[in-house]
Specification:
Main location: cytoplasm
Structural class: alpha+beta
Keywords: Cytoplasm, Fatty acid metabolism, Hydrolase, Lipid metabolism, Repeat, Serine esterase
Domain START: 364-513
Pathway: Lipid metabolism; fatty acid metabolism
InterPro entries: Cytosol_ACT, HOTDOG_ACOT, HotDog_dom_sf, START-like_dom_sf, START_lipid-bd_dom, Thioestr_dom
Helix content: 25-40%
Mean pLDDT: 86
Length: 556
């Protein structure tokens, strides 16, 4: 039976042979990148009617792996055409030929540029949209293009911000490592099989060579089996042709718990440039690896200790790219909101309240929180997990802990300091420590405003503890159904943890495990193009300190 294909779609199918695999019998990421680039190029040329070259590749996240004997299917099609460039969506599926089960390996987006013949001007025809999904991707393509164009300035802004504070590296911390032993250099001669019909080196071939040297670099740090988890957005700076010598230099930049970023720089030399030692910088890319040991257990990487100025630059650059990468997840692909909230049941109020509190405590205790921003009284952390992104905002407040607790646990106060909250009203007074609120929020990214129904559960410290807890999660109430005026949204797990520092000050930590509906409010902050979290945190500190100063604490 012929596979169903959309107009303009290109399909590649490959059976994974031993020559395509690494030492563990899994499909080489470099080989897959070559196939993906070839398929995307053919889709671009099918739409343009003339030759096209790879201009850039967005973030690639590998969801799964493929092994020898399995079947790879790559679908590529143009999602939107601009004047001379096109965005290509690439979807990779792996199928087990014995069971017939299919799994998603990755979804990626690349940009190709049409190359005119002679002095002929190019103006690409628009993409014909036939389905609702194609219309959604067409709209998102414009958003993704904005992200690509803003990438360099966002990166530079974060790096400038990083230079204003010291990253929290403990110089005496045990178990740290340097990157000196992870440097790798390799050379390749571009031959006709490596090039397209115009003699330019295939972008996918360059990506495959880069992946090889990056894998060696990562293995020198982990002493295990590294496997490529994602590739950061990158663009090709210039072409190379048959006869060029390509020199690849790779080195580890930074580690993040179970992942490591490796940077690769590529320089091209023709024969004369090679003799003179004068190369052309044609590409740089940043590859993120996980690794397993001989028992197939995930390896935790040591923290990196920068030594030289260049080490520090690369170290901070990796943190900046991670911030941008996390934020880009919001615009890379379209996800429909999946209902996550729990049906409110008064007969289970104790259970629902306790699970709400325990979920917040568990989120706070997870390992892997990484600092992304440090200001005078505020620190912002992110936690990246397989299927979730969480944010923690930690602030020092000049007010007693019990005052901060009473002010923050009463959500009717929230609109007084949080610009995202418009209204917040109690709809069910469950108990002294548990209330259900109906909340309306401001507009984000031009959508309709959002609304929430949340259970707020609060706890004072136990005898052997000094932490006040205010836990928040969405619940469903039949009496408050979704309204056409709002987008009903979800809070998976959020809240405040408040700890006394002394009798007149405390630390307040706000945590939020983000759902798709919450992410738009945070994406700009994580990516460095918005300061709304810092502004809200500063407003929260000011609200609490002013309330204490004005004597409100005396009536609490």
């Amino acid at each position: 039976m012929e596979p169903t294909m959309a107009p303009g779609e290109v399909l590649m199918s490959q059976a994974i042979q031993p020559g395509h695999a690494d030492s563990r019998g899994e499909l080489s990421a470099g080989q897959l990148l070559k196939w993906m680039d070839t398929t995307a190029c053919l889709a671009a040329e099918k739409h343009a009617g003339i030759s096209c070259v790879t201009a850039s590749m967005d973030d690639i996240l590998f969801e799964d792996t493929a092994r020898i004997g399995q079947i790879i299917t790559i679908r590529a099609k143009v999602t939107r055409a601009f004047s001379t460039s096109m965005e290509i969506s690439i979807k990779v599926i792996v199928q087990d030929k014995f069971t017939g089960i299919e799994k998603l390996l990755c979804v990626a987006f690349s940009t190709f540029v049409a190359k005119p013949v002679g002095k002929e001007k190019v103006h690409l025809k628009p993409v014909m949209l036939q389905t609702e999904e194609e219309q959604i991707e067409h709209t998102l393509a414009s958003e993704r293009r904005k992200v690509r164009l803003q990438h360099e300035s966002n990166f530079n802004n974060i790096m400038k911000e990083s230079s204003m504070f010291n990253d929290p590296i403990c110089k005496d911390e045990e178990g740290t490592a340097t990157t000196m032993g992870t440097s790798v250099q390799s050379i390749e001669l571009v031959l006709p099989p490596h090039a397209n019909h115009h003699g330019n080196t295939f972008g996918g071939q360059i990506m495959a060579w880069m992946e090889t040297v990056a894998t060696i670099s990562a293995s020198r740090l982990c002493h295990g089996h590294p496997f490529l988890k994602s590739v950061d957005m990158f663009k090709f700076r210039g072409p190379s042709t048959v006869g060029d010598r390509l020199v690849f230099n790779a080195i580890v930049n930074n580690t993040f718990q179970n992942s490591v970023e490796v940077g690769v720089r590529v320089e091209a030399f023709d024969c004369q440039e090679w003799a003179e030692g004068r190369g052309r910088h044609i590409n740089s890319a940043f590859l993120i690896y996980n690794a397993v040991d001989d028992q197939e257990e995930i390896i935790t990487f040591p923290r990196i200790q920068p030594i030289s100025k260049d080490d520090v630059r690369r170290y901070q650059g990796a943190i900046a790219r991670r911030r941008i990468r996390l934020s880009r997840k919001y615009v890379i692909s379209h996800k429909k909101e999946v209902p996550l909230s729990t049906q409110w049941d008064i007969s289970k109020k104790g259970f629902l309240s306790n699970t709400n509190v325990e979920a917040l405590k568990n989120l706070a205790s997870k390992s892997g929180w990484e600092v992304t921003t440090t200001l005078d009284k505020i620190k912002i952390y992110t936690l990246e997990e397989q299927d979730a992104i969480s944010v923690k905002v930690e602030k020092r407040v000049g007010s007693p802990a019990h005052t901060a607790y009473h002010l923050l646990s009463d959500f009717t106060n929230r609109p007084l300091w949080d610009p995202h909250y418009i209204t917040c009203e109690v709809v069910n007074h469950v108990s002294e420590d548990d209330l259900i609120y109906y909340i309306t929020c401001s507009v984000a990214n031009g959508d309709k405003p959002k609304d929430f129904v949340v259970l707020v559960s609060r706890r004072k410290p136990l005898k052997d503890d000094n932490t006040y807890i205010v836990a928040v999660k969405s619940v469903s109430l039949p009496s408050i159904p979704p309204s056409p005026q709002y987008i009903r949204s979800e809070v998976i797990c959020a809240g405040f943890l408040i700890e006394a520092v002394n009798s007149s000050s405390c630390t307040v930590a706000y945590l939020n495990q983000m759902s798709d509906s919450i992410l738009p409010y945070f994406a700009g902050n994580i990516g460095g193009w918005s300061k709304s979290i810092e502004e809200a945190a500063a407003a929260c500190i000011k609200f609490i300190e002013n309330a204490a100063h004005d004597g409100l604490k005396s009536v609490l």
